Amino acid sequence: MPTFHHIGIQTADLDQCLAWYREYFGAQEKWTLDTFSELTLSRLPGITRLTEVEIGDFRLHLFERTGQDDRLPGGNTAQFQHTCVATESPEELTRWRERWVELHDSGRYRFASTEGPTDIVIDSDGVQSFYTFDINGLEFEFTYVPDGS
């Protein structure tokens, strides 16, 4: 069975993206690169820096590229649509939503999307969730599953 190592997130402003992931998720910076192989440069023209962060046992590779298209992710194209974060209680789910609103309203970050978090909804099977975006416009789902499955 494969083990997933990390998810790569492209950003136009690595410093702001890194600060937001630190403040919102408690991400810890592990390392940064500013020189790249020919393969990386051919696949990601304009890449300037890449920083690996850890959130618990999960890793993200945040990388900055020049000349980035300003269109937001989304629409009806093939892509990773969202990343889901599991919470241990309905109260924790509410705290994640409130924390997002607090950081957004602080004015310290420029968000690519003006859309705020959805309300917390409860499905017929008792699963609770809300959706929101990081500062780059990438979508996250936060969910609480009562029986943990």
**Secondary structure: helix percent:** 10-25%
Distance, first to last CA: 19 Å
Q: Which structural class do the helices and strands define?
A: alpha/beta
SSE string: EHEHEEEHEEE
Largest sheet: 4 strands, mixed
Rounded to the nearest angstrom, the radius of gyration is 16 Å
Order of adjacent strands in the largest pleated sheet: 1-4-3-2
Record field, number of beta strands: 8
**Mean pLDDT over the residues:** 92
Low-confidence blocks of residues: none
How much of the residues is beta strand, in percent?
A: 25-35%
Helical element count? 3
Q: How does the overall form come out from the CA principal axes?
A: globular
Task: Report what the structure shows.
It is a single chain. The chain is of the alpha/beta class and 149 residues long. It has a four-stranded mixed β-sheet, covered by helices on one side. The longest helix has 17 residues, at 90-106. The model has no long low-confidence stretch (mean pLDDT 92). The protein contains three helices and eight strands. It has helices at 14-25, 38-43, 90-106, and strands at 6-11, 28-33, 47-55, 58-65, 83-87, 121-122, 128-133, 139-144. Helices cover 23% and strands 32% of the residues.
